[in-house]
Design goal:
- The complex is a heterotrimer of chains A (about 600), B (about 375) and C (about 220).
- With about 600 residues, chain A is mainly α.
- Helices cover about 75% and strands about 0% of the residues of chain A.
- In chain A, strand 1 and strand 2 form a beta hairpin.
- In chain B, helix 2 links the parallel strand 1 and strand 2.
- In chain B, helix 6 runs parallel beside helix 13 (about 355-365).
- Chain B is globular and about 65 Å long.
- Chain B starts with a helix and ends with a helix.
- Chain C has two domains: about 1-80 and about 155-215, 3-Layer(aba) Sandwich (Rossmann fold); about 90-150.
- Chain C is built from seven helices and nine strands, in the order E-E-E-H-E-E-E-H-H-H-E-H-E-H-E-H.
- Chain C has a five-stranded parallel beta sheet with strand order 6-7-8-3-9, with helices on both faces. A four-stranded antiparallel beta sheet of chain C has the order 2-1-4-5, with helices on one face.
- In chain C, strand 1 and strand 2 form a beta hairpin.
- Chains in contact: A-B, A-C.
- At the A-B interface, helix 1, helix 3, helix 13, helix 18 and helix 19 of A face helix 1, strand 2, helix 3, helix 7 and helix 8 of B.
Chain lengths: ~600, ~375, ~220
């Protein structure tokens, strides 16, 4: 029977719209599957090898003091780290947001560099800071000696190595202060002035505590909680800093990292498999619980002030007072002391192995560029780091654009809750931590056919895994902010498909994409935790792994430590370049949204 | 949102059910050896960061034998064994260097190694073991306790038995690498079994007493020696704590200390007569290795006089060759201690495997 | 004789050497609604903010109820101010926003009871539990007025309060505001650029140019 032409056209439209409707779901399912498959494979392998039931897991946890103490230490250090970051970061954000600062870009760099600093470099920096000829020692702060003030204080309250634990908390706080600044400063600086003026005109409006309780906390509370949550997660899943600053203490993450190399082998070292399995599961559950609890609080405080009065980006604000300048610049300079310590340490070589006297010398730099370490030179490791980062960017950026687009399409279909749920699943790898991802990939890939463990580009996978959630978190809100009418208008112009996409979306996102590229580069370039556990062919060694290798070498050779600092300095240099790019393009785009 | 959650839960439970599992049992009754002889110029070596393998040594091998050497690095001997276990069906390397006599038996049982069929002469006879057809020793050392003699008070004598270390005098001052994660720690664990005449119950009683006395367990030798031990070079390094007067290292470690500090050291070996363990490190060929010719060439090179006689100063371990000795410069030999020959560990005295014993140890020490 | 509640004497304000306000003399009687008309950007808002203490003048004096006011870090706290766009706080519902205007030592429950009375006064008690972002412009400005009612100040300063209200509601609001101010016996300065609004609401109208030439 001949169909009516019009009927055929209608059917085609119906079918193509159905195809369009399901395409985003298919894409997202495939990507999610690719992300989570190694984790599931690793998990099921660990469960099978451990030969356990759920009740056995509980019993093991209850009886194992190492696991319990690891969990306790994870919680305590993460809590205090996040809280310290909150106190410092909120204070800095307040002053930065309330006043006009000269050379603000320098201040921004001081505070945002720590966040993208590779964790192994941060560890090297704080080791150098607290060493015998480090800056802390020069100002009288001794965290090493057992009879130092900090350690004596710690002993009196029952905490061993209190100096080192304090250093760890400070290091984590240093890392995460920028989160508070990024979340809070834009809100503070762009708040419509009438909100504050009106509040001053109300009874008790002149009382500082009342203003903080009734006005500022509700306004900033949601952002503070978000930043605190992220700080908590990053501190909880920290690996390199725990490994180097508090040797002898374990968190769930470092426990999984230490025992991870023994895990997953049937009939051998069941203890290691069980420890890794439990620590990974407990960590994941704890993070989910903390996230759920605080997210509820945050959502309660998520109020749209912009719906009442629009933000003002160009208000006139006063110059900071002397005390504000002292505080902010002082903290800024303190923030860069670990970097200075790394740089200085690369030139300080002990006279011989049994003395703390040192000489200034370029020997470490010369040796770094002329020798091989484990068969790989610094330049080869640098090249590897670059290549991995570039490949990771080539995967992460288009993938995050595709996934963001798909999520937006689902939202436009009216299924916002599904879109939010799927977005959560993509962000969830942030809860998994680098070590878990590395374990998942190495154990999980072993379950698949083929010799994937010898695949030259295997090290890129954890970089993609860990960088993608950040990319999505930046790109997704930016894409949502692009007004639909630009795309509608672009479609109405007689242009090619690519040109239409560029006009309708691309031109509004180009700065964001540059920020995503720079951030992905920075994270990938310095990635350590997952790379630590992937099969390590010498020719695959990256700069961050090389730093760890050199730090691990016996230090009776006076040049061992400065060599590690040289490599850390090189890693730092490229991180700094990434930061410059991020800051330049981020200011063009607008503030970072939480 | 509900459907997404249900789907995720289903996937999660499926993975937990193990029904996706396709694992094979890795323990075999009889090994089949997959001999290959691929004509390859690339030799892959699975090892840890052996200090003797510097670029000069490797380049000399490559120049002499015409191979390109590529290393795969693990953290220590345990890591090497684990890597071989995990990749048994798809070996990643040709040669494994660094398995010691606490691990090699397991590697043989799991059919991870193949006989090397090499005859190497001039190896000291006391290093002959039942593993010889699978592994060729390339260095050795005696794991034992080291003490910072500077921590002894006036007229105090050195501890004379392991039981002394459970006294309050030594509370919180002994750092031992965990046998779960460290090969010297594992060796020391076996040494304690030997000390108690292979009586496992007495051995675990001692460890329990040590736990109650605040023993510091570390993840590896480096952390115990460099970070905690007050008698070694760690005192001058970054990150030093120095809360341990006693640690597990090698009986010749005081000699190494003296060598680097112009014949000065406070460190001394203790209890080596009956609480030491002769740790022998092996070069082994991996079952299924592609480049067996290259592997044999490397073993030959490693056991050459030019390379192996330098072990005391390149790798800080004893050479396996006859007619070699520790250097006398700076008191290296003088400060090093060699335990009596009858202190060697006897595997046949063990009723359970080392790993089974370690599982029990972990239950005691972590509860 | 009707008393003067608010008196401005030679109030001037300059910014970056530009005179925005020059020697303004102004008196407001008790119970009077004074309209101030001028073009946009002439300085009317700045004058209002000087009067309530939000902004410091370059020179001049201000007395409220014969008490000379001194400009400090914070506003005087004794005048109600309605912004052009009503400033309501989204973390509180309508009742909570009105309760912010209740001064003195009261428990939270008492404050909410007092606030409810203010909402009843302005006939919007049915909005008590609404989220503020769901209000129309007119509803929002009524809520702002209710908060001003809760504040019990004698003087109200209204800075173009109907600018963001749609035309249909505007004149209804004009009548309501005038009625409420009169019922409360407050004095008010009503700033606008719309003469019709001024005529609906005010007892007396002054132009900005008259003020600047000291004919207020």
């Amino acid at each position: 029977m001949e169909r009516n032409y019009d009927e055929l056209k209608i059917m085609k439209n119906v079918h193509s719209s159905k195809a369009q409707k399901f395409t985003p779901y298919i894409l997202l399912t495939v990507v999610l599957g690719a992300f989570y498959a190694p984790i599931f494979l690793a998990l099921q392998r660990l469960i099978f090898v451990s030969n356990w039931s759920i009740s056995s897991m509980f019993d093991f946890f209850q009886e194992n003091t190492l696991l319990q103490s690891s969990m306790k230490f994870s919680l305590i250090q993460a809590f205090f780290s996040a809280t310290l970051a909150m106190l410092i970061g909120t204070s800095i954000a307040w002053h930065l947001g309330r006043y006009t600062w000269r050379n603000k870009s320098i201040l921004d760099s001081f505070f945002s560099l720590p966040f993208i600093t590779p964790s192994i470099v941060a560890a090297a920096g704080f080791l150098a800071l607290s060493s015998q000829h480090g800056i802390l020692m020069h100002v009288g702060i001794d965290i090493q000696s057992s009879d130092s003030f900090l350690n004596t204080l710690g002993n009196s309250i029952g905490i061993e190595n209190f100096g080192r634990v304090s250093l760890l908390i400070l290091a984590h706080a240093w890392f995460n202060v920028s989160l508070f600044i990024r979340f809070l400063e834009p809100r503070i600086s762009s708040l419509h002035p009438h909100f504050e003026m009106q509040f001053h005109l109300l009874p008790n409006g002149s009382k500082t505590w009342y203003r903080w309780r009734t006005f500022w906390m509700p306004y900033l509370g949601g952002s503070i909680i978000s930043a605190w949550l992220f700080s908590f997660f990053f501190s909880f899943t920290s690996f390199a800093l725990i490994r180097w600053l508090v040797p002898g203490e374990y968190t769930l993450e470092s426990l999984a990292g230490t025992f991870g190399q023994f895990a997953g082998i049937q009939g051998y070292r069941i203890d290691a498999t069980r420890i890794v399995l439990i620590s990974t599961l407990v960590q994941f559950m704890m993070l989910c619980i903390v996230f759920w609890f605080f997210q509820k609080q945050r959502n309660r405080m998520n109020h749209s002030y912009e719906a009442i009065l629009e933000r003002e980006h160009f208000r006139i604000v006063p110059q900071p007072s002397t005390s504000s300048k002292f505080l902010v610049w002082g903290l800024g300079l303190l923030a860069i002391t670990p970097y200075l310590s790394i740089l200085l340490s690369s030139f300080q070589i002990r006279e011989q192995s049994t003395t703390s006297e040192f000489r200034w010398s370029l020997d470490a730099w010369r040796q770094a560029f002329s020798n091989d370490f484990q068969g790989i030179s610094v330049l080869d490791a640098l090249l590897n780091s670059f290549v991995y980062a570039i490949i990771a960017i080539c995967i992460v950026v288009p993938l995050s654009i595709l996934v963001s687009t798909a999520l937006l399409q689902i939202e436009k279909q009216g299924k916002k809750r599904i879109a939010d749920g799927l977005e959560f699943l993509f962000i969830a790898p942030l809860f998994l931590s680098a070590v878990t991802v590395g374990l998942g990939l190495s154990i999980g890939l072993m379950s698949l056919p083929g010799n994937l463990l010898q695949w030259r580009w295997l090290p890129v996978l954890p970089h993609v895994f860990l960088t993608f959630p950040f990319a999505l978190r930046i790109l997704q809100p930016a894409m949502k902010r692009v007004d639909e009418k630009y795309m509608m208008q672009a479609k109405l112009l007689d242009r090619s498909a690519l040109s239409t996409i560029w006009l309708g979306m691309g031109v509004h996102l180009k700065n964001t994409v540059v920020v995503v590229i720079a951030l992905s580069f920075a994270f990938s370039f310095g990635e350590f935790g997952a790379s630590f556990l992937i099969v390590r062919f010498e020719s695959w060694t990256s700069l961050s792994i090389l730093v760890d290798v050199l730090l691990s070498r016996p230090k009776f050779d006076p040049i061992a430590y400065p060599l590690a600092m040289v490599v850390a300095t090189i890693l730092l240099f490229f991180t700094f370049i990434s930061l410059l790019i991020i800051n330049t393009f981020q200011h063009m785009e607008g503030e970072y949204h939480d | 949102m509900q459907r997404v959650l249900i789907l995720c839960t289903l996937l999660f439970c499926t993975s937990l059910s193990g029904c996706l599992n396709t694992l094979e049992n890795t323990v075999e009754e009889e090994c089949s050896f997959d001999y290959k002889s691929v004509n390859s110029k690339t030799l892959r070596i699975l090892s840890y960061d052996i200090l003797a393998f510097d670029s000069e040594m490797i380049e000399a091998f490559e120049a002499e034998f015409g191979y390109d050497v590529e290393f795969i690095y693990e953290s220590d001997a345990g890591g090497i064994l684990n890597q071989m276990m995990l990749t048994k069906n798809t070996p990643q390397a040709d040669l494994a260097i660094g398995l010691d006599n606490t691990y090699i038996q397991t590697a043989i049982e799991f059919c991870l190694l193949q006989p090397h069929n090499l005859i190497v002469e001039n190896i000291q006879s006391h290093l002959n073991t039942s593993y010889d057809s699978f592994g060729i020793p390339f260095d050795y050392g005696h794991v034992c306790l080291n003490l910072d003699s500077g921590k002894l008070v006036e007229n105090e004598s050195v501890p004379s038995s392991l039981s002394d270390l459970t006294n309050e005098r030594w509370a919180d001052t002994i750092a031992i690498p965990s046998p779960l994660t460290s090969s010297p720690g594992r060796a020391f664990f076996l040494a304690t079994i030997k000390h108690f005449d292979y009586d496992i119950n007495k051995t675990f009683d001692w460890w329990t007493s040590m736990k109650n006395n605040g023993v510091i367990l570390t993840s590896g030798w480096t952390e115990a020696y460099e970070t905690h031990y007050s008698g070694g070079y760690g005192v001058w390094t970054e990150g030093h704590i120095g809360d341990a007067a006693v640690t597990v290292s090698y009986c010749h470690s005081p000699g190494v200390e003296a060598y680097f500090s112009f014949n000065e050291t406070m460190s001394t070996s203790i209890l080596y007569n009956d609480t030491s363990f002769k740790q022998i490190e092996y070069a082994t060929m991996i079952n299924g290795a592609a480049n067996t010719a290259g592997a044999k060439a490397f073993i030959t090179y490693l056991l050459s006089y030019e390379v192996n006689s330098d072990m005391p100063t390149s790798n800080y371990m004893y050479s396996v060759l006859e007619n070699t000795s520790l250097p006398i410069e700076y008191g290296y030999a003088w400060h090093s201690t060699t335990p009596p020959s009858n202190s060697t560990f006897d595997d046949s005295m063990l009723v359970q495997s080392t790993d089974e014993l370690l599982l029990q140890w972990s239950e005691i020490m972590m509860s | 004789m009707t008393e003067i509640i608010l008196k401005l004497n030679n109030i001037s304000k300059s910014f970056n050497d530009v005179d925005i306000i020059r020697d303004i003399q102004l008196e407001v009687k008790k119970g009077e609604i004074l309209g101030l008309i001028g073009p946009s950007g002439c300085g009317k808002t700045t004058l209002l903010q000087i009067i309530c203490g939000l902004v410091h003048p370059s020179s001049g004096e201000l007395t409220l109820d014969d008490i000379e006011q001194t400009w400090g870090k914070y506003p005087f706290g004794n005048m109600t101010y309605l912004f052009q766009k009503p400033v309501l706080y989204p973390h509180l519902d309508v009742l909570g926003n009105v309760a912010l205007g209740v001064g003195g030592k009261h428990s939270k429950k008492e404050k909410r009871m007092i606030a409810m009375k203010s909402l009843e006064f302005t006939s919007i008690s049915h909005l008590a539990e609404r989220e503020v972002f769901s209000l129309s412009g007119g509803e929002a400005q009524r809520v702002a007025f209710a908060r001003g009612h809760a504040q019990t100040n004698d003087v109200m300063l209204l800075d173009e309060p109907f600018a963001s209200v749609d035309v249909e509601q505007k004149f209804a609001l004009c009548g309501e505001f005038r009625h409420w101010i009169k019922e409360l016996k407050k004095s008010a300065i009503f700033v606008t650029h719309d003469i019709d609004e001024a005529k609906h609401v005010c007892d007396r109208i002054v132009t900005w140019s008259d003020l600047q030439s000291n004919e207020g």
